[in-house]
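Weekly structure sync, notes
Attendees: PL (lead), two postdocs, one rotation student
Agenda item 3: pending single-chain targets
PL asked that the sequence for the first pending target be pasted directly into the notes so everyone works from the same version. It is reproduced below exactly as submitted, 279 residues in total.
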Amino acid sequence: MTLESDVSDLWDRYQEGLTVADATSEDAEVLESFLSALEAGEVRAAEKTGDDVTTWEANEWVKRGILLNFGLRETEPREHGGVTYYDVLPLRDTADLGERGTRNTPDGTVIRRGAYLGSDCIMMSPSFVNMGAHVGDGTLVDSCDTVGSCAQLGENVKLGANTLIGGVLEPVEDAPVVVEDGVSLGAGCRVTSGFRVGENSIVGENTLLTPRIPVYDLVEEEVLYGHLPADRRAFTRMVESSVGDHELFEGGAYKPAVVATHVEEDTLEATRREDALRE
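Predicted structure, written out during the meeting:
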């Protein structure tokens, strides 16, 4: 039996009415093995199946395993740092981070069980990485950042302060938010609802990336939804709304959009200077 088959069997039984009270010690071992595999980076909630950023697909069995860890556990009091809190899961053991050169500063870096952090990562406080998230090598999670459930962050990603990476668990078929290698997100960015950011793109501060907001790609001269191609510089602009000439709106009505252009050399140079500060 493989871990995938064990989780799939447990999911089928859960769908048929298996409860916390009915779960056996063997079931608990499956849940623990699954969490350990997530934390080791051996399994992921989504995988890239092709060369383009649009080819990411959810691993349904992995997301089901995460849901089982909520459905087949009870909320109970737990202790951390002298504080009692109530949750279905303890926080992640971070003893393995130091040997990989990963840092999490004190007083507010929270890593939930089932989250993966690669080598040479930095987590500044306060910040939060949720269950099922995958944070690649060399990635910076800055102060007041949230990395949601199942979010997939590549290597050498920079999340500016107060950035939100949204999570997704249900429906299990939906792919989570993806931020590929080398992406830099400015302070205050929001990436939600399964949006995918292509590698080496640079996104301006306070930009909202969600499938409901159009991306005007000036490089290929097309309008996109749900993803930003690789090697783009993106920023928010207001464009005329379809109700712009409505009498209710004096002076016209506008809606947010994202404009994407080529990454300029001076923008790349600025991100290189940021890299130097971390060495």
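Discussion points:
- The two ends are 44 Å apart (CA to CA).
- The chain has a mean pLDDT of 91.
Action: rotation student to compare against the earlier draft before next sync.
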